[in-house]
Every structure is written in structure tokens, then in C-alpha cells.
Amino acid sequence: MAKEFKKLRGNRVYVEIPKKEESKLIVDENTKEALQKEMLKKMSKLTVYAVGELVTDIKEKDVVLVDPGKLKDALLIPLSDEKDVLLISPFDIVHIW
């Protein structure tokens, strides 16, 4: 599959964002809490979409754990109308699953 860009430069990593199921239903606090826990579980295993040319030990399609404290500050990059990714530093990747 062709990427939406030519080359990711430097010491950068794009990771895919898990799909968040939108709901039009109003849920109680217990259900909302359970849904948030489920989303956190999904965020603990993110798939690498692309790596910069300076990144040597992480590859496309690797599944990684990103430091949760760094995830909240990660930049959301819209690559196309259908594809958004998070921009992170390889130093924020804790381990490869």
C-alpha cells in the first residue's frame, strides 16, 4: 500500500490510532468508565505506520507500547481525509510487543 507521503525524515515515528467506536447513546458512569478502560487497553498496543530514516530498531507494522505520559502530548497528524496518525519520538516507545 502506498503511503500518503514520500518519506518520513529524522528520528520520528508515526503510529496508527485505534478506531474509537462512536456512540449516540447516553451511558451511565460505570459504562463510560468501562469504555475508557477498553480504549486504554487499545492504546497500550499501537501499530507503527512509518519510521524516519534515523530510526533503526523499530519497523513498520511493529506493535509497540508508548509511554502513556507522552501519548497525551503526541501530535495528531492528518495524512488524508481517511488517515490520521500520532507523531511520537522513538525514545517514547517503551517496548516492542
How would you describe what is shown here?
- This protein has 97 residues and is of the alpha+beta class.
- It has one domain (26-96).
- The protein is 20% helix and 28% strand.
- It has helices at residues 29-43, 68-71; strands at 13-16, 46-51, 63-66, 75-78, 84-88, 93-96.
- The model has no long low-confidence stretch (mean pLDDT 86).
Using brief descriptors, characterize the structure shown.
6 strands; globular; 6-stranded antiparallel β-sheet; 2 helices
Q: Count the domains.
A: 1
Largest sheet: 6 strands, antiparallel
Using the CA coordinates, give the radius of gyration. 15 Å
- Span from first to last CA? 23 Å
- How many H/I helical runs? 2
Strand order of the biggest β-sheet: 4-5-1-2-3-6
3D shape: globular
Helical percent range? 10-25%
* Mean pLDDT, all residues: 86
Oligomer: single chain
The number of strands is: 6
Structural classification: alpha+beta
Work out the strand percent.
25-35%
Spans of at least 5 consecutive residues whose pLDDT stays below 50 are none
String of helices and strands:
EHEEHEEE
